[in-house]
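Moderator note: this is an archived Q&A kept for reference. The question asked for a predicted structure of one protein chain; the sequence and the answer are reproduced below.
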Amino acid sequence: MILCIDVGGSRMKWGLAGPHGWLKQGGVANAQIGTLILRDWQNLPRPDRVVGVNTAGEAQRVRVEGQLARWRAGVQWIKPAAKGGGVINEYRQGELAPDRWASLIAARRRATAGNEPATCVVVNAGTCVTIDALDADGRFRGGVMLPGLQSMLSALADAMPLSRTSGGHWKDFPVNDADGAATGVARAVCGAVAVTRATIASGDAPVRVFIGGGAAREIAPHLAAPVEVVDNLVLEGVLALAD
């Protein structure tokens, strides 16, 4: 059994995988990582291996490893490579975050599951938003980064202190500040996805989008098909790299 870990900017997700797929999955806010062994992992079987990615810094890494002391299990922390899992990494070495690398590996597996490999765009919509382009040959061409939806809303609130910029919803034609803000930040992400899609498109073949992260289901309905929401895209990639 393999315990896969994804420590993000605000939350940690985990999944225990056996020979035939996921046995159990969960997630906690980073501030609650210290409670895992007493709560979520109290009755979890001892994993044979622990593999993970961490983009939250050294302090969170130490907290995670402290929770694993009960099993005397060390963590294999994944780092991006020049090549792996069917992906050729053209990003500048040493700068790509490991969660993006894992997402690309997972997307490549999904994109090659059909008759022909598909060009795809890989979106992680969490504390930050990353939008990465992966061509049909498995080359990671590069990607863009945006603030997450909540960060963009907070920036609007700071810039427009007399306006209500929270609590809104997507509207095709917003008629109040809250809906205007919610729609605007979501459209910013959708626009960046559309431009990335158009840039990497080749011929008439559709460019697939795989999107994960906490805001995935908020953004996905407003993207052109084909779009697939993958709740644990990073964990899928971690497991693939562990295999």
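Archived answer notes: Helices lie at 58-67, 98-111, 149-159, 177-200, 216-219, 233-242.
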